[in-house]
Amino acid sequence: MKKDSLNSWFKSGAPGVWISGGSVAIAVIMTIGLLAVIAVRGLGHFWPADLIQANYTVPGQPAHIVVGEVVQKEEVPRARLKGAGLPVPDDGPEFMTRELIKVGNRDLNGSDFTWVVGEWLTDQQRPADLIALERREWGNFYGYLVSVKENGKVVAEGPAAWNELQTRLARADKLARELQTLEKTDIGAINHGLERLRLHSRKLELEGKLDAAAQADMDAERAELNSRYKAIEERLSTLHQDFARDALVARDGNGREVEINLSKVVHAYQPNGMGLFTKLGVYFSKVWEFLSDDPREANTEGGIFPAIFGTVMMTLIMAVIVTPFGVLAAVYLREYARQGPVTRLIRIAVNNLAGVPAIVYGVFGLGFFVYVLGGSLDRLFFPEALPAPTLGTPGLLWASLTLALLAVPVVIVATEEGLARIPRTVREGSLALGATKAETLWKIVLPMASPAMMTGMILAVARAAGEVAPLMLVGVVKLAPSLPVDGNYPYLHLDQKIMHLGFHIYDVGFQSPNVEAARPLVYATALLLVLVIATLNLSAVWIRNHLREKYKALDS
Question: Could you tell me the pTM of the whole model?
Answer without folding.
Answer: 0.88
